[in-house]
Write a structure and sequence with these properties.
This protein has 526 residues and is mainly α. Helix content is 58%, strand content 4%.
């Protein structure tokens, strides 16, 4: 009788939790624990409830209790544990949890999808695909599972399968805004084949900022493909407006971060030595050609890309012990003056090497590492840093056009055209300081335009800077089959093209407010 009652209470608690009736769900869980103190399901449900209320540490404690009581035999507990660890940026532990979940029998579609999400967010896209596929096999009418599968397939370069998965998600749920933006971004829209009618109808009925952002970007991308610049920019503004207002972003809040990065140029540290092979960091504004440089260099047999790692900033944040809510901020950068950066560098290398364990040279292409460039060279003296530059007006345009992950607040500047221009100006000023102060044998700049003009010449310079022997494969980067976890995943699998050069000139009238900001800052446009 007790077991039957507790089972019914747990089932009801899950239902109550699903509709966010937290008080009643909590009461049910406590009632179960009174009847059966060693029951594990209540701790799992209480972990979810606690997480929903913003207490991540308590949530971790509760799910770990559930895992212990279930003797580690319940897949969904491990999968949820992995998600929580991912939120805490504990990638290695999260991956271990996901794999523990995968080894449990009779996993549900939801658990399999969660395993895939943890692996994807940790950079293991190929491994994630098998779990997404199992999820869609078990629950073929769940649009979210098909979308997640499509995203992983796109990352590993399987564009045809990604398109099919996105299309399937939309067939199941015509309002799947992420699937729509991904599908339109992945495929060339034409006058004969586009989705403008469906997308505009959806947009008019949407109220949530993220939904309008995704659908509006899909409409803008369609107009871009059709060559209708004015309509494209009009829809970008409409798409971003509600999200911009909700975020209340202010460019003034970012300026102290740029100023702190400049101050790190003048910090004084004791020299630290490392015997590891020199890692390569590719930095720059997003959409400036960082992925292109990554593909050129990772086509070399001695170099393997680890993707866009947050590891250096995470290790810096942990070592600094700052209480600020952001991983990368003024307080943390300035606190680095009192740190043993050599230890931070060693911790970074240990963490990064787990992503690409057999790499002779690791390549990290997180664009935002540009804030940490001087600290990276102090922490890892033999590191090589390549800053990718692009005509600043084109950088403004490409950043404004891009649909960045809405959960990543560092790109909120792109929600407004003028703020995007102001951010790019700050970047340009900081890079000028880097060029003047950082050693040229460790830090260099390469222009996207130069790579396009003469790919082989630019590639040879990059390879030489990294102290590598030349390999012809570096000039044929589009044949590189490694995963690409960025917005450039489709473009970099094609031979070099020149259509992106001086693209801003086609948008000169629409970009006028941004161009005025660049000119006032002394930026030469021609």
């Amino acid at each position: 009788m007790v077991e039957q009652k507790t089972n019914m209470l747990i089932i009801e608690a899950e239902r109550l939790l699903s509709v966010r009736n937290y008080k009643a769900a909590h009461a049910n869980c406590i009632e179960v624990l009174k009847l059966s103190p060693n029951a594990h399901a209540p701790f799992y449900l209480l972990s979810i409830l606690t997480f929903d209320h913003g207490n991540l540490d308590k949530s971790l404690e509760l799910v770990e209790k559930a895992i212990a009581l279930s003797q580690g035999k319940t897949g969904r507990y491990h999968a949820w544990h992995g998600r929580l660890l991912t939120n805490q940026h504990q990638r290695d532990l999260a991956v271990n949890a996901a794999r523990a979940a995968a080894n449990c029998p009779d996993n549900s579609a939801q658990t399999l999808d969660t395993i895939g999400v943890v692996l994807s967010r940790s950079g293991y896209h190929s491994e994630a695909i098998q779990h997404y596929k199992q999820a869609t096999d078990l629950s073929p009418k769940n649009a979210a599972y098909w979308y997640n599968l499509g995203a992983a397939q796109q990352f590993v370069g399987d564009m045809k399968e990604a398109e099919l998965s996105y299309t399937r998600a939309i067939e199941i749920d015509p309002t799947s805004h992420k699937a729509w933006s991904s599908l339109v971004s992945l495929t060339k829209q034409t006058k004969e084949k586009n989705y403008l009618s469906e997308l505009k109808t959806q947009f008019d009925n949407l109220k949530r900022p993220d939904e309008r952002l995704n659908i509006g970007h899909a409409i803008a991308k369609t107009y871009e493909d059709l060559g209708q610049v004015q309509d494209q920019m009009h829809w970008l503004e409409k798409a971003k407006k509600l999200k911009f207002e909700a975020q209340a972003y202010d460019i003034q809040n970012d300026i102290p971060l740029f100023q702190a990065a400049q101050k790190t140029l003048h910090f004084s540290y004791s020299k630290c030595n490392t015997s590891e092979a020199a890692p390569i960091f590719v930095i720059g504004l997003p959409r400036s050609g960082t992925t292109l440089v990554d593909r050129i260099l990772s086509s070399h047999t001695d170099v393997e890309s680890a993707g866009e790692l947050t590891d250096f900033a995470l290790k810096l944040k942990k070592a600094s012990g700052t209480l600020s809510p952001y991983i990368l901020d003024e307080e943390t950068l300035l606190a680095s003056q009192r740190l043993d950066l050599g230890q931070v560098g060693q911790q970074y290398l240990q963490s990064a090497s787990k992503i690409v364990p057999n790499a002779r040279r690791i390549l990290d292409k997180m664009p935002l590492n540009f804030f940490c460039a001087p600290l990276i060279l102090q922490a890892i003296p033999n590191a090589k840093i390549i800053c990718v530059r692009r005509h600043l007006a084109d950088s403004v345009l490409s950043n404004y056009k891009q649909l960045f992950a809405t959960s990543f607040s560092y790109y909120n500047y792109s929600l407004n055209l003028e703020d995007t221009a102001k951010y790019c100006v700050q970047f340009d000023k900081l890079m000028a300081q880097y060029t003047s102060n950082l050693p040229s044998e460790k830090y260099t700049e390469v222009y996207y335009e130069d790579i396009v003009a003469d790919t082989t010449k630019a590639a040879r310079k990059l390879v030489n800077f990294c102290d590598l022997e030349w390999q012809d494969a570096c000039a044929s980067f589009h044949k590189n089959s490694a995963p690409v976890a960025t917005a450039s995943s489709a473009q970099v699998r094609q031979p070099i093209y020149k259509s992106a050069l001086a693209r801003w000139k086609k948008y000169e009238a629409e970009l006028e407010p941004a161009l005025r900001i660049l000119k006032e800052a002394g930026i030469q446009l021609d």
